[in-house]
Amino acid sequence: MILYLTKRLFANLLALWAIVSITFFLMKAIPGDPFTQEKALPKEILQSLYEHYKLNDPWYIQYGNYLKSIVTWDLGPSFKYKARTVNDIINSGFPISATLGLEAMLLALSCGVVLGTLAALKQNQWQDYTSMIFAVIGISVPSFILAATLQYVLSIKLDLLPVARWGTFKQSILPAMALAALPTAFIARLTRANMVEVLAMDYIKTARSKGLSERAVIFKHALRNALLPVVTYLGMLTANILTGSFIIEKIFGIPGLGQWFINSITNRDYTVIMGITVFYSMILLLAIFMVDIAYGWIDPRLKLIVDSSSKGAFRPARKPRD
Amino acid sequence: MLFMFKNIIFILITFVLPACNTSSQALQKQNFLRLNIFTEPPTLDPRKATDSTSMNVLLNLFEGLTRIGEDHHPHPAAAEKISISQDGRTYTFILRDSYWTNGEKVTAEDFLYAWQTILDPKFPSLFAYKLYVIENAEKIKEGKLPIKSLGVRALDEKTLQVTLKYPTPYFLELTAFPTFYPVNKKVDVKNPEWAAEASADYVSNGPFRLKHWEHENEIQLFKNPRYWDSKAVKLDALHLAMIDDATTEFYMFEMNELDWAGSPLSNLPPELIAAFKDDGVEQKFQVNFYPATAVYYYKINTQHYPLENSSIRQALACAINRKDIVTHITQAGQIPALALVPPMPGWNEPSQLFEDGNTALAKQLFHQGLEELNITLEQFPKLTLCYNTNREHQKIAQAVQQQWKDALGVEVELAHFDWKVYLSKISHQDYDIGRMGWVGDFHDPVSFLEPFKFKNDPEAGGNNDTGWEHPDYIAYLDQAEKELDLVERARLLRKAEALLVSEMPIIPIYYIVNGYLKKPYVQGIYLSPLGMADFKKAYIEKTGKT
Questions:
Q1: Residues of chain A found within 8 Å of residue B252, distances taken between Cβ atoms
Q2: Closest CB from B122, B244, B419 relative to A250
Q3: Contact A38 B437 (CB under 8 A)
Q4: CA-based angle B318:B324:B325, to the nearest 5?
Q5: CB B73 within 8 A of CB B170
Q6: Are residues B482 and B404 located together in one domain of the fold?
Q7: The complex's ipTM?
Q8: Beta strand pairing call for B66-68 and B208-214
Q9: What's the CATH code of the domain at B29?
């Protein structure tokens, strides 16, 4: 097990290095730099800025410095926001995005599973159709339209919730709803599809014929298996939703991390681009890693077995169902 | 699993229920204003600031030697007396007794120190070139002269003497600009990062002080009791939110969570301006407009065939119907531009140097151009009109594309790019025609004419990417620079403008207008046509109804 974890860790570090390198070279390849502006700057001022921010160094020195800054987790100052370092930006933005993301995730998970299960149990009845209409809307309506609609209806027309900003629980409800719509719909569809499949399995028939109550059949046997793909999806979702959404944060004026993903590129704010890309990649790799581990724990059929032929390499293997 | 499911339902309920209980926003009657500055100000160190967000916050935190008054003219501020030498090159400022927020005295040395650091070749200041009007400033920044040679002397604690390169009639306007603000030397030496947070080290000398700065979320400025003119400051505080979305800002204004929406701190959503402008309809909101010292124009790459021909360029300019564009597309009371320099204090009448939407004349000029180039209309190549990705620019470009096709039969292709990609294309002169907006730095035509004095070297950059240069134009501007007689100076500048427009390396489209919404109780804000808002004398009208 330890060997497996170590191997995974190394694979992740390699992936991280690849991400950092590709981002670095892509970033340098796009036209414009942090000081490109409408009113052009005199040459000597540009030179003094390049010198100050070490942009005159050859690319391998700059690349080396970036790698070093990532290893030491001292990501340097933002080029545009002179009062801010990239560490500041992550430290202040991430908790906010993560709180909002967590709220949205709980909302998505609970609503999604309920809707999906309901739809599967009442297959081809009105409950099914209603749930799936919601799911289709959730998947197809872009989040900015949903956000604006929620703002207009719940804040402007009904005056129930604040329009925007961050700080109180009430202010977090609208953005969490807007953020949760897509994953809710996705989870609902996923749960329904798997639930339908699982309910047709022999062991469910067995459970029913044993005289188990319908509740026990659903919750103890069916749902548990049907939720496995949802767990896989949660890995990706966690990384995405915890690091914030550009659109939702912009519309609701939330000082999270999400806005920086786009703004840093628009501003060609090199240190911020690198810093948050690495941070996001780390969260993503970590989330996927956790899902892998969680899988073995949730699903007893799934074990990390030793493949003796390849000298102690561990690989996840799936036993045939039933 | 059942337990987990129950939990999920419980959480679901706790999430949905609080949505049902809320209170309606009580209307504010406190003595502060709630405004939106759109984004985090990139810096609150006046020496490093370049963008309008930072500039607007700084304007309310600091006091320069002069401050622009409601008459749009500079008035003595941190300086009490200003004397100008006969040759117009030496300015002597006698400072009044005024104090920093930490109780220390504002001295001439603080001004000298701030300007010297800006011009230090190692100091990262983008706007250092604003100080180039001072003798030797440019050479110092280039590293060719020592900092001691700067034409600024602190004769004693209260006397600052500045020697300029040329007589600069707008110099007292420049000294009101944030790049010319003083910086407390003791604090800056002790803590170079003093401007990063709202700490005790953040010292300023203006109407307000920095009380609270929650990055990317909110800034609070409180009245500065140590300000020399604090009697004139009526507000207790300014609450500056950072909401990066015009529609959300408008919603918050509508819900009485903001007292102001739109220029100059942010923008109104363009579709709202159009909606509220509908004449004859009783409007819920009245959008206020005021002219900006700014022009929207199309740059032409005069190095590209066939745009090297000035008759063709003039034909393109005449074929555009600006009146249609401002009435049907931009819709916010913009003024069709028939010259480069917008109306501004001291330049009230903008010139009218060519005809708007005169298709007959345009056709005539175009055929003349074709003859000069010795080609037919069929041989006239397809032109590309570029703009940075933005709905408003796109709509204008589409209209111009159609107008050129209708009037001249010219085929034009539209292309749009991300802002920085766009700027780098333009500065590398990899374009035919491209849009640009230009806001003046100060109220003087030079701010608009100077950028076209010399053509850029595409490698070195600069502001004249048109490839156009004219010896007479350079001569007019050189003469104006040294001219002491203001009437003669204005005549020279008008001549330069007329020459530029007759050569048409740029096609003026319209003079920009700013729009905003405010609550009726908000009064006394000075809105500068250069895009600044001064809250020094702002107040809340007590009798006003919300």
A1: 163-165
A2: B244
A3: yes
A4: 90
A5: no
A6: yes
A7: 0.86
A8: unpaired
A9: 3.40.190.10
